[in-house]
Every structure is written in structure tokens, then in C-alpha cells.
Write a structure and sequence with these properties.
- It is a single chain.
- By secondary structure, the protein is mainly alpha-helical.
- It has two domains: 1-49; 55-109.
- The protein contains five helices and no strands.
Length: 125
């Protein structure tokens, strides 16, 4: 419940800020990055998955943005075509990893202790 409450609230805030005050949306995204990553890692631990699965998503997203910026500079020559191919592969990897993370976060958490400790319900009592 904690993961979905945070995710919905953060997404709603980002959408509202993007609509109302676009220049603030990028700094807000940076401010919410670490808390979002922490909540995702906690949720992955709850379903008995390693938190390291959350790391490739921001790395690949940054790489995709970097490659997009490079294509605007070098689109005309052969290097630009290679960058576009790499960007397409990065986008495909983001899509597959994002779908996998979505499926894992939608699963029910472990009811008993797993390799990451007790479930959150057991520790809050």
C-alpha cells in the first residue's frame, strides 16, 4: 500500500506541476528521484527481489536522453544512425525492464520473512 500511495501521489504532483508551472517540473523530478528509488527498492524487497533491479532503469533513461541529445548534433552522418540504433535498443530495454518491474510491484508481497527481513506489516505491529 505504501508503494502505490507514494507512486500515485508523486505522479499526480508531477503532472499538476508540469501543467501549471513547466519550469519547476524538472527540478521536482530530480527532488523526487531518490525517494522514488527508495520506495521502489523497498517494494522489490517486499516481493523478494533484489533492489539492484531498480538501478538499470534510471541509467538506461539517462543514456537514452544523452543519445537523443547527440543525435541532434550528429544526425546527418553515419555516427548519427548508429546512435539512433543504440537509442532504439535502449528504449526497448527500458520497455522490457519497466514492464518487468511493473509486474513485480503488482505482485503480493511475501507473507513470511524472506531474505530481506520481515514483511512491513509484521514490523509495524
Amino acid at each position: 500500500m505504501e508503494f502505490w500511495s507514494y507512486t500515485i501521489a508523486a505522479s499526480a504532483l508531477q503532472i499538476a506541476v508540469a501543467v501549471a508551472a513547466t519550469p519547476i517540473s524538472c527540478p521536482l523530478c530530480l527532488v523526487l528521484f531518490l525517494p522514488s528509488l527508495a520506495v521502489l527498492v523497498r517494494r522489490l524487497h517486499d516481493v523478494d527481489r533484489s533492489g539492484w533491479w531498480a538501478l538499470p532503469l534510471p541509467v538506461l533513461s539517462f543514456a537514452l536522453l544523452f543519445m537523443y541529445a547527440l543525435t541532434s548534433v550528429m544526425l546527418g552522418d553515419e555516427t548519427g544512425k548508429q546512435i539512433l540504433i543504440a537509442a532504439g535498443l535502449s528504449f526497448l530495454a527500458i520497455l522490457v525492464l519497466g514492464t518487468t518491474l511493473l509486474v513485480w510491484t503488482c505482485r503480493r508481497g511475501t507473507l513470511a520473512q524472506n531474505r530481506f527481513g520481515l514483511p512491513p506489516q509484521a514490523t509495524s505491529d
